[in-house]
Design goal:
Blueprint: E1 8-9, H1 18-26, E2 37-44, E3 48-56, H2 68-71, E4 74-76, E5 79-83, E6 89-92, H3 94-107, H4 115-128, E7 140-149, E8 161-171, E9 182-187, H5 204-219, E10 224-228, E11 236-239, E12 242-248, E13 252-256, H6 266-277, E14 281-285, H7 289-298, E15 301-308, E16 312-321, E17 324-327, H8 335-348, E18 359-361
Parallel strand pairs: 1-3, 9-10, 9-16, 13-14
Antiparallel strand pairs: 2-3, 2-8, 4-7, 5-6, 5-7, 6-18, 7-8, 10-11, 11-12, 12-13, 12-15, 15-16, 16-17
Helix pairs in contact: 3-4
This protein binds pyridoxal-5'-phosphate.
Pyridoxal-5'-phosphate is lined by residues 78, 202, 238, 241-243, 263, 265-268, 308-309.
Length: 363
């Protein structure tokens, strides 16, 4: 689907001053500071996408009957804009996010945002708010596209009207004090996604359903929950909102296959390519919790890491489950984990060659 919609630019009358911006950019944290502008577009069945606008960042007004509040047709994306050494700003694989956003929309019976509208919105917002792109190593401008149903109607059916939104939030280095391995809780009580369900869609409801399991992981003294398959509770799927990788001493780099219940991460896909570039035997396969524990014990599993846009690559050091706990090697960040992390960050921050053509310069 294409669109030749142009985005009307109506800049904020009260953008924050350079001093206020500098103060906010000093310690941006994650997801708490928002830039001066946002993009919106509307969809109405029969009319298609229209009224694409870049305006001041501002609250929304919603009718109490707005259907997303009741039946949850809501999807989102997450990607980052990176400051480049020559002063440009570049996005990492935004076409992949555009495609996934469309797949998520299809699964939730929502209108698909045309790739051109998705990409043009990103470009327009980053250009308008380029002074909000942080420049220190490890920092970025996190971009949050989302779409939800806005019919004011209580009948249960796919909505006929949708709102597309894009806004931006400067993000600090995820590991300011150096990369720290996480501990994980293998959840057998809760599952994230079942066959035929919405596990491969980046929909809001998946996150709502995950929070109680994440709270349980915290009660167990763990940083993150690891999801297992819903049928047998033995195949490893993913960790919180990140995909997982297993490094074996025989040179295999294994990630759980996309069975339909996993979220197909852009970072996961990029690491498959980086692993191949490094000459590793990359495998999309299945790993059981018993294999995980046995291979950690006999030393054939040397490293485990999680990956996603927010933290890029995070080592997993320790694992706890209902019947015990174990460490991965010495529970420290593994050498290959750190090498993959540096390779990816190098491409994103423009300090390593972009041999796959992943970076899109927009400002
Ligand atoms: C977004 C997400 C990921 C990671 O995807 P990236 O495109 O790499 O950021 C992994 N798992 C879940 C459940 C997610 O929502």
């Amino acid at each position: 689907m294409t669109s030749d919609l142009t985005i009307d630019v109506i800049p904020s009358e009260r953008p924050r001053s350079a001093e206020d911006r500098a103060a906010l950019l000093k310690e941006p944290g994650f997801g708490q500071v928002f830039t001066d502008h946002m993009v919106t577009a509307r969809y109405v069945e029969g009319r298609g996408w229209h009224d694409a606008r870049l305006t001041a960042y501002q609250p929304l007004t919603l009718d109490p009957a707005t259907s997303v509040l009741h039946y949850g047709q809501a999807i989102f994306e997450g990607l980052k804009a990176y400051h480049q050494p020559d002063g440009a700003v570049a996005l990492f694989r935004p076409d992949q996010n555009a495609a996934r956003f469309q797949r998520s929309a299809r699964r939730m019976a929502m209108a698909e945002v045309p790739e051109s509208l998705f990409l043009d919105s990103l470009t327009a917002l980053v250009r308008q708010d380029r002074d909000w792109v942080p420049t220190k190593p490890g920092e970025s401008l996190y971009l949050r596209p989302l779409e939800f149903a806005v019919d004011a109607f209580l009948g249960v059916r796919p909505a006929k009207e949708y709102l597309f939104l894009l806004f931006a939030s400067p993000a600090a280095n995820y590991f300011p004090g150096g990369v720290r391995p996480v501990s994980v809780w293998l959840s057998t009580e809760y599952t994230r996604a079942a066959p035929g369900g919405t596990g491969a869609a980046k929909c809001a409801g998946n996150y709502a359903a995950s929070l109680v399991a994440q709270a349980q992981a915290a009660e167990q003294g763990c940083d993150q929950v690891v999801w297992l398959d819903a049928v047998e509770h033995k195949y490893v799927e993913e960790m919180g909102g990140m995909n997982l990788y297993f490094v074996f001493s025989d040179g295999r780099l294994v990630t759980p296959a996309l069975t339909g219940t996993l979220l197909p991460g852009v970072t996961r896909d990029s690491i498959l390519a980086i692993g191949r570039d490094m000459g590793l035997d990359t495998v999309e396969g299945r790993v059981t919790t018993d294999e995980w524990e046995a291979a950690a014990a006999d030393g054939s599993l040397t490293e485990v890491f999680a990956c996603g846009t927010a933290a890029v690559v995070t080592p997993v050091g320790a694992v706890k489950h209902a019947h015990g706990s174990f460490n991965i090697a010495d529970a420290q960040p593994g050498a290959l984990t750190m090498k993959v992390r540096e390779s990816l960050l190098g491409i994103q921050q423009g300090t390593a060659p972009d041999s796959h053509g992943w970076m899109h310069r927009v400002a």
